[in-house]
Amino acid sequence: MTTTQAPAHRSRSSSIPTILGKVLLLGATLAIAIWIIPALIALQQWLWVAVVLFAAIGIFVLYTTKRFIPGKYIFPGTFFLVVFLIAPIVLTFAYSFTNFGDGTRGSKEQAVSAIMGNSVQQAPDSPRYGLSVATAGDPAAGPYTFFLVDPEDQKVYQGSLEQDLTPVPAGDVTVEGGRVTEAQGFTILTMPQINAAGREIQQVSVKVDEDSAIRMLTANQAFEGTATMVYDEEADTFTNTTSGAVYTVQKVGNTDYFVDEAGNRLPQSWLQGVGGANYMRLFTDGKIAGQFLKAFGWTLVFAAGSVLSTFLVGFALALVLNDERMKSRRFYRSVLLMPYAIPAFIAILMWSNFYNRDFGLINQVLHLHINWLGDPTWAKAAVLLTNLWMGFPYMFIVCTGALQALPGDVMEAAKIDGASRLQTTMRVVMPLLLVAVSPLLVASFAFNFNNFNAIQLLTEGGPFPAGEYTRGGTDILISMIYRIAFGGSGADFGFASAVSVALFVLTGVIAALQFRFTSVLEDVN
Amino acid sequence: MLIRRKSFLALGAAGASAALLAACGDSDSTSTTAGSGASDGGASGAPAVDPNAGLVIWCDDEKAPAIKGPAEKWGEANGLTVAVQTVPGEDLQANFITANQAGNGPDLIIAAHDWIGNLVQNSAISPVQLPADASEKLAPIALSAMTYDGQTYGAPYAVETLVLFVNKALTDVAEPATIEELIAAGGAKGAEHVLSLPVGEQGDAYHMEGIYTSAGGYLFGKNAEGGLNPQDVGVGKEGSIAAGEKMKELGAQGILSTSISTDNSISLFTDGKAAYLISGPWALADIKKAGIDFAMSAIPGFEGMNPAVPFAGVNGFYVASQSKNAVNAQTFVNEIATSDTIVEEMFPEDQRPPVSLALQQKLAPEYPELVRVAELANAAEPMPSIPAMAAIWGPLGKAQASIVGGADPKSTMESAGTEISSQIK
């Protein structure tokens, strides 16, 4: 920046709209930060608290001063890159070293309290008492006392966490409709009050005898039950009071569970770090390693085949419809865009019905008996055909646009030089067109490389040869890996994250190679 | 150019991971009919919970209109507001587990019983205590379905199972006693297809369960306490191989075909092309609309073998473990368990065979078919709700599809058994 420009810059930045804009931006930043940080703290999302704080401070430092001119321009892009790209990748990477998944989502404390809470069993043949929750103190804070009416003999009892079940003389309380409605020295809680203090009141158990206690069932009923699982915090063990079985923390696979002597484990576990176990499984599991290369090969064929076929068909149609001798070109162009306008998942389901061996449109119209989706080779053809149908309109649009942008004088020069139509197309139009569309071909390849929907909705990766469950005939990497990570015993996010990271690296390498290739193409021109 | 190229590279790589994450967020469509026990990621589409409501219920879009009115009426009577929120059925389980864990989930959900195992291992639901006379008032299958590891986790209200639909115009035998009789009767009057039973290219272990059990196949053995033992997988054992041989036979005869899937099985029957159909109460509306003169009966077994035991699914109400209105939720569930009022009010909007015996009697004159389904469900077996069930659907279905297509029953079933055991943790 030269000195002559500096005054102009200063006068620009101090105009009223600029200042207003700045104030609004900074105000909005502050407002959002103040609004969102308490919520994030409540959810204990410390990473995001740090991100928001960092961003807010960054915005203030950068935009309140006249310094850091390059920073002002770089910051917005960098910020969104970090939040939407790098942060998810870092999180995925972090999850790949844990056992995060079904049964291992929460903390150990949550698992322990769930095991205890879930073990309360209703005592057989015990009555359901009419319950009134009362307190001598504040209805919101307690301590709470239960007034209980036995439905059979209308006898009244009271009790609390400290006081075991005690009979109440009939004169001390008013009983109406099977419940105590008034008790001297106590406030009877209403249903909303009970609900508001639900967490504490649910902890109240009134001891009946050694192993049985009365607990709240609903706002006006109580039941007698026994917690059959008792946790010993010192020893970190659970004891089943009915069977006497003792559950200790043991590793099953790479995850800690409470397991008894007979090897039975409790279903609840918790989030734990497992080191490189997920990666070990990915690279050493014989089933996965053996099928990986085959799936990779078909993925390349599928992606390259889809790009090539859609481009050739799209280009040919664009050429034909670019010829001025064609009539009603507008109409044809609109019709050709139809497949593009139909949502992919509807189109694919329609096609999967077309391919049905006995009832499908294709076999019926052509009087064939091809097992389209049941034979691995035909299924591959079916997948490519469907993807061609869905993909060619895109190439058609792109090529039409590029063709219309070609300079007319080049074509005229070719004509004057005596080139035939074919020669003009192959030697002049094609190279010029490729310069414009090759980045799109690369993008299309990358898209089809991970075209999960095309495979999953049409064939679900099938057909599967008898006895083969890891990789079906049309499985590309992503659909195979999806099945491995989620098809088995519940969701396994830790393993899925490890797979994501591996695939991320692989795609990165392929993308780098592609750009090497396209830059060669650019150098030619 | 250099910068552009690099950012392009980053974009491509990010695209890959985004695609996988998106794939991960997708629902597990390999077993949608059966309602897989697996849950997956992504809390997308989960509604924000109204903090002022005294009770928040999450359910799918079929049940939401039915429960809304009755639940609000109950709320009014108890002086609180009830919010019913719709979550797409395929996202409900995953969204509920994630939201509940984060402390912003609902108080109640309505779902099928086969989710219980996964909800329990994720500490997502609290037990409920049913009244002592529940065993007299409710169909026995409803109670056994709601029981997991000896504890009751939900208040049941509706049951469904697979039955045999008979097109009386295409066959004279409305209640075939065996599959052999069904085949003979279905072919006698020249119907295009004897039996419409969905198999599909990926197999359909849910619809095939009757045939599988009749020939002696089982999924999980029982442990000492009467629960299911995930370490004892029946796939690949003797009975399953016998079942495989029967499936191969039926496939060779053209009775079973991978061309028939859940996409076209019901329409084959309603178009008058199939004499028999194996499907559930959800097919009733289409069949009636098509004006087919039909009958319903139990799915028959093979001659001289076991009776066919299809799966039953029981819908119920569950209390969220992190519910902010746990007392209201327990009170509501207790109301469902002790009185038929709310379930009866739900019925007109979303007709499901009830589990309450009194309600069955009351509805029988007007809805004989639905009540018949509820009766037939008593001979069914609740779909296993243990999380290991998620490992069954894929391999068993694929093995069955291969066998119907002509593969060797013994080696295929055994390989499926090995695959399933390797998936169970």
Automatic annotation (TrEMBL), chain A:
Q: Does the keyword Membrane apply?
A: yes
Q: Which CDD domains match?
A: TM_PBP2
Question: What keywords were assigned to this record?
Answer: Cell membrane, Membrane, Sugar transport, Transmembrane, Transmembrane helix, Transport
For membrane topology, the record states: Multi-pass membrane protein
Provide the protein's localization.
Cell membrane
Task: Name the principal localization, coarsely classed.
Answer: membrane
Give the matching InterPro entries.
MalF_N (IPR035277), MetI-like (IPR000515), MetI-like_sf (IPR035906), TM_PBP2_N (IPR032550)
Q: Which residues cross the membrane?
A: 19-40, 46-65, 77-97, 295-319, 331-351, 388-407, 428-449, 493-515
Q: Which residues form the ABC transmembrane type-1 domain?
A: 296-514
Role, per record? Part of the ABC transporter complex MalEFGK involved in maltose/maltodextrin import. Probably responsible for the translocation of the substrate across the membrane.
Family (UniProt): Belongs to the binding-protein-dependent transport system permease family. MalFG subfamily.
- Protein name, as recorded: Maltose/maltodextrin transport system permease protein
Automatic annotation (TrEMBL), chain B:
Q: Where is the composition biased (Polar residues)?
A: 412-425
Region Disordered: which residues? 405-425
Extract the Gene3D superfamilies matched here.
Periplasmic binding protein-like II
Family recorded in the similarity comment? Belongs to the bacterial solute-binding protein 1 family.
Q: What is this protein called?
A: Extracellular solute-binding protein
Signal sequence span per UniProt?
1-22
Checking PANTHER family in the record gives: MALTOSE-BINDING PERIPLASMIC PROTEIN, MALTOSE_MALTODEXTRIN-BINDING PERIPLASMIC PROTEIN
InterPro entries referenced in this protein's UniProt entry, alphabetically: SBP
Do you know which SUPFAM superfamilies this protein is assigned to? Periplasmic binding protein-like II
Q: Which PROSITE patterns match?
A: PROKAR_LIPOPROTEIN
Q: Which UniProt keywords apply?
A: Signal, Transport
